[in-house]
Amino acid sequence: MESQQLHVIFVPFPTPGHMIPMIDTARLFAKHGVNVTIINTHANASTFQKSIDSDFNSGYSIKTQLIHFPSSQVGLPEGVENVKDGTNSEILGKIVQGILMLQDQIEILLQDLQPDCIITDMMYAWTVESAAKLNVPRIHFYSSSYFSNCASYFIMKYRPHDNLVSDTHKFTIPGLPHTIEMTPLQIPDWVREKNAATAYFEPMFKSEVRSYGTLYNSFHELESEYEKLSKTRMGIKSWSVGPVSAWANKDNERKVNRGQIEELGKEAEWLNWLNSKQNESVLYVSFGSLTRLPHEQLVEIAHGLENSGHSFIWVVRKIDDRDEGENSFLQDFEKRMKESKKGYIIWNWAPQLLILDHPSTGGIVTHCGWNSILESLSVGLPMITWPMFAEQFFNEKLLVDVLKIGVSVGSKVNKFWASIDEDGVVRREEIVKAVEILMGNGEESKEMRMRAKKLGNAAKRSIEEDGDSYNNLIQLIDELKSLKIARELVKS
Ligand code: UDP
């Protein structure tokens, strides 16, 4: 007799924007009676193990199954196992190489553990075959918006950017319920024209169609038209179960422990600084877990923030090869901001959920990573949008043109940080302009704030008992249980 409890294996991709929401989702499954196993490497697991242990000790059936990251084979020091650890292109390349080598270990574990379902990151297209071998459903975990998935789908299908006079000319994305205009330079380079990355990303989209369905960290009221479009035109079964960060991390200890292991030594200092500020007066500036900016861009941001006259907390990720002059510019700036109490710099990693949740925080400058968007939205904050790479430019369009809760800073070129050049630099005047609109007292800011708060309330409702996301999660678990029973009947 097989165990009656549904066993689901989660396989996250080792970058915070993918891993954090998947771990939150896995914990939600466990809290709703599912036996959960998360497959991950040592250093990555250590960033969330505290939460797993605490859930386990509270009686939930959840555990991590460790696999070995091939550090020495790819020539990396121990513990460098996540895309966020890449401080230059060479290290980044080795990390990706190491991640690709994990496939065999994951395959063997899946066969050994014989789960009833696998929920695997969108980047692991090959897990469709693993699920077929096991005769269980594979659920595709898409770590961004319905909007971005629909936009990518229609651009890849109709290629409206081909044959334009130049890469800076606008085209309209076909097939969408809103008129969304972009330039070819703003879409991912591998979509613009085939390159080495196309061979990696195309199978990802194909694997979605061959999966049992897609899990979204989104909620019905946020992008219902795009949820519908994805189900009807793209024919993909899906469940929106977000925002998972607000659902899975309800207390402060969980919010601090999320996504990092280092103790937050300066916690009291940034908190005191925020506590000394008026409600909704501080702008939180973050470019997510991956982006590290070139010196020229940091200088423009520093001047832009200072010239805006508004208070800010800015998260700066360190980069290799900054020379002395460059380092001293930021150190002087940090000192000057400390003295005037106008600004606070956090180096490398910020306790983002706690900062966003603080009453003094009044807005965010975001690179439009989907998690940062949802985390800001969940607490009703409007945004300055500054997309950098991948699908972030699509997310910007959702915020600015559809939801109308974002002010665009005017980012023009879709490039991963390691290859940003002068073309991609946003000037200080643009930054000042956007900050004045968002943090000022004008009508536009008030209306954006109001809409963001309304969406924040909708987000909260969706994860309460009987809310849309809550019901979707329960329904998905029930469906997976029925599939398990049906499979066992066939076997017996
Ligand atoms: N994050 C954080 N502190 C940081 C940077 C990032 O807690 O200093 C978290 C953030 O809250 C979010 C994730 O890392 O959950 C980043 O995901 P997102 O989709 O926003 O962007 P990405 O890092 O993938 O570009």
Automatic annotation (TrEMBL):
Family matches, as InterPro entries: UDP_glucos_trans (IPR002213)
Alphabetized GO MF terms: UDP-glucosyltransferase activity
Keyword Membrane: no
Keyword Oxidoreductase attached: no
Keywords per UniProt: Glycosyltransferase, Transferase
Entry-linked Pfam families: UDPGT (PF00201)
Family to which this protein belongs: Belongs to the UDP-glycosyltransferase family.
PANTHER family: GLYCOSYLTRANSFERASE, SCOPOLETIN GLUCOSYLTRANSFERASE-LIKE
Protein name: Soyasapogenol B glucuronide galactosyltransferase
Species assigned in the record: Vicia faba
